[in-house]
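We store amino acids, tokens; thus:
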Amino acid sequence: MFHLTLQEAEGGNASAQREIGNHYMLGLGVPQDFRQAVHWYTKAAEQGHARAQKCLGNMYANNIGVPQDYGLALHWYRKAAQQCNAKACFNLGLLYQIGHGVEKDYEEAFHWQLLSAEQGYAPAQFNVGLLYSEGKGVAPSRAKGVEWLCRAAEQNHAIAQYNMGVACETGDGMPRDTKEAARWYKRAAYNGDYNAQVSLASLLVKGSGVPHDSGQAYVWFAVATRQQPLSAESSELFRQIKSGFAHAQLMTLNACAESLEQVIEARKPVNPLAKLSVKKAMGEKA
């Protein structure tokens, strides 16, 4: 299959050239070779292939197979974005938002992020929600911010789900609803979001929005601690819960936490290209 695709690529077929680039990028049927990936992405990109242009932008943005060059990343993202490639629009917007390869410009950032979001790309919907909430590049509107966060959350975007939980729990931009907060925290927690795991554990301790359940709270705290240390407040709450269980009970709960961690790990995406983007973490709270 690789050799047939390679023949097409060598014959000038842009889609085949991008496919060969992916083979070298991922080491599929050939030894992984980032420089060869760049070579084939470039051939396809120069023919106007939008997805190859986006991939080439990723390579320049992330120092993969070529020296990092945000100017060239911006160039190729723009080429693809002008063809309405959703991920390229998202990445181009991020470069404007961060100020890499171009002067920081929130209006341009919002413009490109919104184009991506309107195509249904969840990370862009999340960012548009933040930009509306913070009034960056657009008139502030918490209601619109929550609307876009909800769209991203419904597509299983974990940080957006956590943000929806916060909005529901605090009544920020929507009516306060602890049951809905618990629902969003639980979805985000199963998607591996640390803050959601801690927040869900806290609701379980309080019996707020969910029935009081110290056992489940312990399990979620235990899962969260395997990602990073708890805050002083949460750590004290975890200690108090732990003191209420016998040693045998703790052994069972720890086993449950290990099993839950495996379930969460199994839910993570496996396509290494799916999440490749500009390496910039966005804020976790809207």
